[in-house]
Amino acid sequence: MLSGRLVPGLVSMAGRVCLSRGSAGSGAIGPVEAAIRTKLEQALSPEVLELRNESSGHAVPPGSETHFRVAVVSSRFEGLSPLQRHRLVHAALAEELAGPVHALAIQARTPAQWRENSQLDTSPPCLGGNKKALGTP
Amino acid sequence: GGGSAEQLDALVKKDKVVVFLKGTPEQPQCGFSNAVVQILRLHGVRDYAAYNVLDDPELRQGIKDYSNWPTIPQVYLNGEFVGGCDILLQMHQNGDLVEELKKLGIHSALLDEKKDQDSK
């Protein structure tokens, strides 16, 4: 019987996570990651910007820069709905999203919201995308 | 298949809850699409339209153009684009999803759970 809480393991809420820069396997920051960071800094003047390359968790070659997770804390989000906030982020990254970036998980909070809750979400496990032919029972 | 704006407009308005996924509710092929399926399942939403963009490249691009949203999954409630997985998760966590479903005449299963818990 499912409880009211989200199925465990589906999306786990990270505690106080120590996020390192250069999150791709090799530890180096790729050009796409650098561009994302620069553009979000310019567009949103964030108080906090945590950017994570999650490509290594997906069905793409090593060193890919296709799947990202970003947490942005900015006063520019005040008064905006979640949808409007996400669209602001998309607008800043239009080039990357039309290009190499295939998935972008976003947490967009105002400074007040961040002080209330600075937990960072983590992404659910990849299910293979269109590269994996899942066997049917 | 097809991804014209008119076709998609009709598609998202045809059902109260419409989602565009990678894969199907029975067999999601993307963790983020699966999250949408699981959230709807938690709320006991069974009657919803799910379209698999992996089956149809025109649909896959067309729905992104239609909503001006670059990624899949996409969630529509009452014909209106609501957002992707992150937004649906947020709505689930803060109670907004229960409210939005109520407006559509859908009684979330979580309300019954809460009632059961309260009455113990």
TrEMBL record, chain A:
GO CC, any one term: mitochondrion
Region (Disordered): 114-137
One Pfam family linked to the record: BolA
Entry's family note: Belongs to the BolA/IbaG family.
Top-level division of the source organism's lineage: Eukaryota
Species, as recorded: Macaca mulatta (Rhesus macaque)
Function: Acts as a mitochondrial iron-sulfur (Fe-S) cluster assembly factor that facilitates (Fe-S) cluster insertion into a subset of mitochondrial proteins. Probably acts together with the monothiol glutaredoxin GLRX5. May protect cells against oxidative stress.
Classification via InterPro entries: BolA, BolA-like_sf, BolA/IbaG_stress_morph_reg
Complex formation: Interacts with GLRX5.
Annotated protein name in UniProt: BolA-like protein 1
TrEMBL record, chain B:
One Pfam family named in its UniProt record: Glutaredoxin
Keyword Iron-sulfur belongs to the record: yes
Annotated binding of [2Fe-2S] cluster, by residue: C30
A GO MF term: metal ion binding
Annotated Glutaredoxin domain residues: 17-82
Keywords, sorted A to Z: 2Fe-2S, Iron, Iron-sulfur, Metal-binding, Redox-active center
UniProt cross-references to CDD domains, sorted A to Z: GRX_PICOT_like (cd03028)
UniProt family annotation: Belongs to the glutaredoxin family. Monothiol subfamily.
Function: Monothiol glutaredoxin involved in mitochondrial iron-sulfur (Fe/S) cluster transfer. Receives 2Fe/2S clusters from scaffold protein ISCU and mediates their transfer to apoproteins, to the 4Fe/FS cluster biosynthesis machinery, or export from mitochondrion. Required for normal regulation of hemoglobin synthesis by the iron-sulfur protein ACO1.
Protein name, UniProt field: Glutaredoxin-related protein 5, mitochondrial
Protein species of origin: Macaca mulatta
Lineage, broadest ranks: Eukaryota, Metazoa, Chordata, Craniata, Vertebrata
